[in-house]
C-alpha cells in the first residue's frame, strides 16, 4: 500500500468503523446490501433479533431473508485494515530533528550530545575527550540539539545561566550585572527546580481529568449502543405489527417508523458529537501530559524556563 493511500485511509478511518461497536472493524463481513460489520457484532445482534422475528441491516434497515443470509468475509477490506493498523503502530513522529556531528568530515554521523561551552554537537567517537580529558570537566553536555545558539547571549556570547524573575527571562552573567542590575535574579538551575515542581503538580491534575473523561466516554458509548438497540427493536416491532394490521395500520406503521428513525438520528447525532468532543479533550489532555513529561526530562535549564 502506498504512503499516499495509507494517509488517505488514516484520514477516513471512521469509514472503517463498525456501526455496531463503533471500533475498527474486526474480521469484517459484507452483507447482501453491501454494508460491512464485525462478524461477531452482526451475529450477536441477529441472535437477539432472531427471537423477535427477522434480521435487518443496522445501517440501511433493509430486511433480510430467512434463514440467515451467508456472511462472506471481506478479504480485501481485512487486508487494508491490517495494513492500516501496522502503519499506525510504526508511525512514531520524531520529537526533534536528527543532529549531525560537527566534527565528522565524512558521512556526518549522528550527534548524541551537544556542549553548551563548545557550542558544538558530537557523535559518540568525538565525544570521548569530554569524558576522558579533565580540561573538559566543566563543560555542560545535553542531548543533541540544533538550538545551541539559543542557549547563548547574543550580546555577550555567554551561557544563559541566570534567570531574572523580574523580567521572567534567562540572561547571562554580564546581563545580570549590568542590564538587570537591581532585579531579582537566581541561578537558572534553581528556578528550574521551582518550575519543575509546578509542572509536576500540573501533570498530576491532568491525569485524573483524563481518567474522568475516559470513564465518561465509556458511559456514553454504552448509552449510545443501548439507544441504537432500542431503536432497532422498535423498528422490528412496528414491522411485525404492519404484517398483521393491513392497509390502514400499514400506513400508520410507516409513520411510526419514520418518527423513530428521526428521533434516532437526532439522538445519535447529539451523542456522537458529544463523544467526538470528549475524545478530542482526552487527546488534548494526553498531549499536554506528554509535552509536560518531555519538558521535565530536558537537561537544558534555559530552554525549560523559556518554554
Layout of strands and helices, then pairs:
Elements: H1 3-11, E1 28-30, E2 36-38, H2 39-50, E3 55-56, E4 63-64, E5 72-73, H3 75-90, E6 113-115, E7 120-122, H4 124-132, E8 141-143, E9 162-164, E10 169-171, H5 173-177, E11 185-187, H6 188-297, H7 301-306
Antiparallel strand pairs: 1-2, 1-5, 3-4, 6-7, 6-8, 9-10, 9-11
Coiled coil: 256-295
Keywords: Coiled coil, Metal-binding, Zinc, Zinc-finger
Domain RING-type: 18-61
The percent range for strand residues is: 5-15%
Under CATH, the topology of the largest domain is which? Helix Hairpins
Give the CA-CA distance, first to last residue. 40 Å
| Overall domain count | 3
User: What's the CATH class of the largest domain, please?
Assistant: Mainly Alpha
Percentage of helical residues?
40-55%
Give the strand line-up of the largest sheet: 2-1-5
How many beta-strand segments? 11
N-to-C order of helices and strands: HEEHEEEHEEHEEEHEHH
Largest sheet: 3 strands, antiparallel
CATH architectural designation of the largest domain: Orthogonal Bundle
Helix and strand content put the structural class at mainly alpha
Q: What is the radius of gyration computed over CA atoms, rounded to a whole number of angstroms?
A: 31 Å
Average residue pLDDT: 78
Helix count from the secondary structure assignment? 7
**Which regions have little confidence, pLDDT < 50, spanning 5+ residues?**
1-11, 89-96
Q: Which descriptor suits the 3D outline?
A: elongated
Pfam family, one: TRIM_CC
Keywords: Coiled coil, Metal-binding, Zinc, Zinc-finger
GO molecular function, one term: zinc ion binding
Protein name: E3 ubiquitin-protein ligase TRIM47-like
